[in-house]
Amino acid sequence: MHALPPFALKSPMPRDFFHIYDGKPDLDLEDEFADIYLAQSEAIRMSGEVMRDLGAKFWDGREWRLEVTDAEDRKLYIIHFSAEEVP
User: Fold this and answer.
1) What averages of pLDDT result for each successive group of 10 residues across the chain (87 residues)?
2) Whose CA, among 14, 45, 57, 87, lies 20 to 30 Å from 38?
3) 76, 16 in Cβ contact below 8 A?
C-alpha cells in the first residue's frame, strides 16, 4: 500500500465568490485564498476599484455592496458602501 503525498491530505483551498450589487447582482470574481484575511483584503481592494471606476455615478446616494460567499452560496461577509453629494 502506498502512502498519499502530504499535499493530498490537505483539504483544497476554499473558493470564494465576490458579488457586486448595484441594483442587480453581478458575479465579479471567483478565486481561492489561503485564509479569510487574504479574501477580506481582496474584497476591500475590489470595493476601492468599484468606487474609483464609477466616477460621478457613485455619488447618487444609492447603496452598493460587495458580498463574498462560499462555494455553497453562504454569505461570509458583506461590505456596504455609498456616497452622496450634498449641495
Assistant:
1) 49 78 66 82 87 82 87 90 84
2) 57
3) yes
